[in-house]
């Protein structure tokens, strides 16, 4: 993808932001992303950013993708979250065998794929593949996809032999509408139910391969994008929209404070309050720090991949460390701003409280477990073995 094409996608996203911002409450009320928003993102090329070139994708550098996600989430947290999740799946599918990619994109290169990676189901090894059953939660944007990626252990003779991601067409699963939450209400993160379905071997990808950055998809997608670690790309896909939500909260707060008069302080204008200015400065610095660390680390990995060099394990550990730290910084910034927004910010429909709820909802995602990521980093610093596929 040329720099001109990259900028065209970013410019297209920028043009959509006012509309996405206006639809934010509608999105929350519907408990799903409006079809019009998904269509608009498709039209500007957003979902093609990480898609393989043989299927019409751009294979853009990952920082471009995260930048677009951050912008979308700054307008609507739920839309940014779903865009990030659905948008990273073309990259993940690019790691699968060529036949799996053909199954999904052979007839329609605009096909979208949802996911639920938590091991909520069970697969049994059979001739030619697996039999899969289970119920998976939190499949964000599943109403917009016609395929799904599901995580789970594989058993043979009642013994676990692998942990895989399984790729299923919509005819093999059922979506159950259960999503009713205090935050990220518009993501439509419903349940996926699978009842004893056969998964051919080419539609399963072992986490042992993804953790080693050696996957069958690299035979047809040899570019540097598909040599990046899953444990770096996917967790960053979770943090990027949260940083975007913090930016959206920041923008809404500053605009709110420009006009706010604090009756309890003899009609003092908030924009003249020195303590309000301090909070704004602190929040801005935390958001900038979160973003700079995330993008710097991912770009460092990508540049190494472009040179065909080995991706150091200590760098991958740093990516995870700063990814969870980025989420913490973003949440801290949102909290500082929300605490100083006044009672009117509590009213349903205001952007500040919606960003506050959405950011905290995103924080509880498993990829944002700080203690686990920090422990991995510390273990690596002591020269001890780190046994975790999410690095």
Automatic annotation (TrEMBL):
SUPFAM superfamilies: Acyl-CoA dehydrogenase C-terminal domain-like, Acyl-CoA dehydrogenase NM domain-like. GO terms for molecular function: 3-hydroxy-9,10-secoandrosta-1,3,5(10)-triene-9,17-dione monooxygenase activity; acyl-CoA dehydrogenase activity; flavin adenine dinucleotide binding. The keyword Acyltransferase does not apply. Signal peptide: none annotated. It is an enzyme of class 1 (oxidoreductase). Its EC number is 1.14.14.12. GO terms for biological process: fatty acid beta-oxidation using acyl-CoA dehydrogenase; steroid metabolic process. It comes from the Bacteria. One of its GO terms (cellular component) is cytoplasm. Pathway: Steroid biosynthesis; Lipid metabolism; steroid biosynthesis. Residues 237-369 form the Acyl-CoA dehydrogenase C-terminal domain. Keywords: Aromatic hydrocarbons catabolism, Flavoprotein, Lipid degradation, Lipid metabolism, Monooxygenase, Oxidoreductase, Steroid metabolism. Residues 20-85 form the Acyl-CoA dehydrogenase/oxidase N-terminal domain. Pfam families: Acyl-CoA_dh_2, Acyl-CoA_dh_N. Coiled coil: none annotated. Belongs to the HpaH/HsaA monooxygenase family. NCBIfam families: monooxsub_HsaA. This is Flavin-dependent monooxygenase, oxygenase subunit HsaA.
